[in-house]
């Protein structure tokens, strides 16, 4: 066996420096009660939205969907929920 010297403490320090996750996962209901500007503000802060859709998703998301897409974010409608991610956060649908 070869001698392999691994300093895990140093590795952990570098991981902490490199990994900067901002934002939160915000749960909500997309029913027309919340203004589109509020959803856009949440996305602009780096949050991921998981919204239970209560109505027609196209009508309810019309006020912010285009802005999210143009900014590089993603919208995915899945099983009654709309997932909205900011730029740089992708949603993998490979397992669907």
Main sheet attributes: strand count, strand direction, barrel closure: 4 strands, mixed
Task: Enumerate how many helices there are, as a single number.
Answer: 4
Shape: elongated
**How would you write the strand order of the largest sheet?**
1-2-4-3
Rg, please? 19 Å
General description of the model:
Pfam families: DUF5779. InterPro entries: DUF5779. The structure is a single chain. By secondary structure, the protein is α+β, with helices and mostly antiparallel strands. It has a domain at 48-89. It has helices at residues 8-18, 36-44, 57-61, 65-70, and strands spanning 25-30, 48-53, 74-78, 81-85. The model has no long low-confidence stretch (mean pLDDT 87).
Itemize the secondary structure elements and their pairings.
Blueprint: H1 8-18, E1 25-30, H2 36-44, E2 48-53, H3 57-61, H4 65-70, E3 74-78, E4 81-85
Parallel strand pairs: 1-2
Antiparallel strand pairs: 2-4, 3-4
Task: Provide a compact summary of the structure.
This protein is α+β, with helices and mostly antiparallel strands and 96 residues long. It has 4 helices and 4 strands; from the N terminus they run αβαβααββ. The chain has a 4-stranded mixed β-sheet.
Notable features of this structure?
single chain; 96 residues; alpha+beta; four-stranded mixed beta sheet; 4 strands; elongated; DUF5779
């Amino acid at each position: 066996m070869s001698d392999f010297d691994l300093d895990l403490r140093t590795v952990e320090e570098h991981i902490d420096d490199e990994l900067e996750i901002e934002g939160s996962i915000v749960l909500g209901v997309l029913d027309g009660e919340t203004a589109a500007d509020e959803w856009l503000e949440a996305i602009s802060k780096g949050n991921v939205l998981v919204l239970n859709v209560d109505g027609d998703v196209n009508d309810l998301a019309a006020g912010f969907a285009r802005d999210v897409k143009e900014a590089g974010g993603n919208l995915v409608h899945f099983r009654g929920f709309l997932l909205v991610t900011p730029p740089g956060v992708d949603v993998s649908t490979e397992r669907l």
